[in-house]
């Protein structure tokens, strides 16, 4: 495919993206074509030695390069806004429409927003009640000591501490099936980051999300 056809394809991709509420399909192969087009035009320095560039007049080279850069930059910005909006509202996106780095961006956002939504579900009175119970009841360990990450060499996962049950939060042992960034539990404790095969006891609500997203799996008692 020559430069003119690739440019037309890029322009059509950008037009579809800005005129469509939903994110459009963009393959890694097409995106690489667009990047090569920009690199080819940038390296030409106004010289039309390459036969593939003969269709473009020399006087339009500079404006063409600027147009290509604008289309690429704006295309990615529009797609980024759509991914953020979808993630914020916990809406699913067809992963086949996303570039590889967009898929990772979407996965991290969804995990973070779902955790925050669960945190929001705790009312202020619930938090205050939990804090009062924590202050009035003597416990052996602090809540901040609850997170315990075990390497894949450890055979048994940790069991809930007494303080965990005293504040009315259930915990579940899970094994991570992939690397996972740090997250905030509904108990307001920071967990992670995690590596694949790490084992950790996290609040049940957080564990439920991790399992649903196939980021972690429940450890069945032996």
UniProtKB/TrEMBL annotation:
<feature type="domain" description="Gins51 C-terminal">
    <location>
        <begin position="174"/>
        <end position="219"/>
    </location>
</feature>
<dbReference type="Pfam" id="PF22090">
    <property type="entry name" value="Gins51_C"/>
</dbReference>
<dbReference type="InterPro" id="IPR021151">
    <property type="entry name" value="GINS_A"/>
</dbReference>
<feature type="domain" description="GINS subunit">
    <location>
        <begin position="62"/>
        <end position="118"/>
    </location>
</feature>
<protein>
    <recommendedName>
        <fullName>DNA replication complex GINS family protein</fullName>
    </recommendedName>
</protein>
<dbReference type="InterPro" id="IPR054314">
    <property type="entry name" value="Gins51_C"/>
</dbReference>
<dbReference type="Pfam" id="PF05916">
    <property type="entry name" value="Sld5"/>
</dbReference>
